[in-house]
TrEMBL record:
Pfam families: DinB_2 (PF12867). Residues 10-141 form the DinB-like domain. InterPro entries: DinB-like, DinB/YfiT-like. This is DinB family protein. It comes from Paenibacillus lignilyticus. The lineage of its organism: Bacteria, Bacillati, Bacillota, Bacilli, Bacillales. It comes from the Bacteria.
């Protein structure tokens, strides 16, 4: 039962995340408001990349350059080429949640030894962490969107 709730929470969070970013104006994606370290495109790519890395242990389902674009410690100021479109990021986020939902419940209690931060011991705990991580970045995106909308009025 607990595992079903974990999937439901993640599905709800991702659905809300997708609903918000699907309404974004592509022109807002690369503006970095004063006081913020990154832009909206970075936050979306970061959520995708960190979730992939934590839950699946690697980035084999994503383009090779995502680690240098979106991983912890990266920033848009270092980008020296065109980055992924909003539409592709949305598509990849949808594909990712499908892959997460296909992880058998019995595997969620399997030990993991890739990420020891915050005392996470199982794949299920990593999923819970990435759910919380996604919600944090959703808040950042929401704040940035509001600031950008107000600055264009």
């Amino acid at each position: 039962m607990e595992e079903k709730l974990r999937y439901q929470n993640y599905e709800f969070s991702r659905s809300y995340f997708l609903a918000m970013i699907e309404k974004l104006d592509e022109r807002m994606m690369d503006i970095q408001p004063k006081g913020f370290n990154n832009n909206i495109r970075w936050h979306i790519g970061h959520v995708l990349t960190i979730s992939e890395s934590f839950i699946f242990g690697d980035l084999q389902n994503l383009p090779a350059n995502y680690k240098e674009l979106f991983y912890t410690g990266t920033k848009p100021d270092d980008w020296n080429r065109d980055v992924t479109s909003l539409q592709l990021l949305i598509k990849q986020l949808k594909e990712q949640i499908d892959r997460i939902n296909r992880i058998p419940e019995e595997q969620l209690q399997n030990p993991q030894d890739t990420y020891k931060a915050f005392g996470m011991k199982t794949i299920g705990e990593l999923i819970t962490f990435t759910f919380a991580h996604e919600v944090f970045h959703l808040g950042q995106i929401h704040a940035m969107k509001l600031l950008l909308q107000r600055s264009t009025q």
